[in-house]
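Today's session is about reading a structure prediction critically. Students often jump straight to the picture, but the first step is always the sequence itself: look for stretches that repeat, for charged clusters, for runs of hydrophobic residues. Only then move on to the predicted structure, which in these notes is written as discrete structure tokens rather than atom positions. Here is the chain we will use throughout the hour.
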Amino acid sequence: MQTFTDTMKRLERVRLYLRRRYGDPPRAAVTHPVEHALRAILNEEAAGAQVDEAMERLHQHFVDLNDLRVSRPREIRDVLGTDFPRGGHKARVIPRLLDQVFHQHNSMVWDFLEAMGKVEARTYFEKLEEVRPFVAAVLARDCVGAHAFPVDNDVARVLGRLGIVDPAKESEAKMQDLLERGVKANRAYEVHGLVKRLAEDLCVVGTPVCARCPLGAMCPSAVLPPKGKRRKAAAKAKARAAPKPAREPKAAAKKKPKAASRKR
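Below is the predicted structure for this chain, in token form.
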């Protein structure tokens, strides 16, 4: 049976492999907590480009955040687009979150967070209706500097396939608690960002791209081609990625001097 220590050692290996693949994930500065909350909700099971486009559509369609707050979920869903991941659910959660905070603080800026402590801020958002623990964790981590490891469907899917958590038996809050106990505060943001990147890039919903995953050899859920084919695919990928040597310019051909005609 895998112990807690074994699980965390496995997660550390995941971090090292993914860091080699993706580098250090960028840390975005939070200039507007409300906008950050919207992105946190939209980002689940969606690619970064999809989120950017959805945010742009929301800004163009609604007059301001207050207009978004009082809008019907159906209208928000239509703006997000019918193919936006879990668009109907997100369209319901967004105005509900904004409306609850507005009625408690009469604010669409959320500057009240400046006076809140780390635990207080997280607890505040966790108590709001239809706000999942991962959204509260994102806001507490990024807005007030709390140690948090948000677990949305993307993180649960990747770490579940790796055998680090068990989404079928553990709640979102329980998985977050496990990861926050096992991952140091100075590495939590990095690990989370790398796992989210893998979820968007290869470990997608449905059929993951295991053959290209840097964790394929250590993932108990990986579906990989036979070793021979794997080596060939890896060699081809390496050849494609390697920079091609620049061709040296051909030297100009020297013209042979014409033989002097013999004088008779």
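Discussion point for the tutorial: DSSP finds twelve helices and no strands in the chain.
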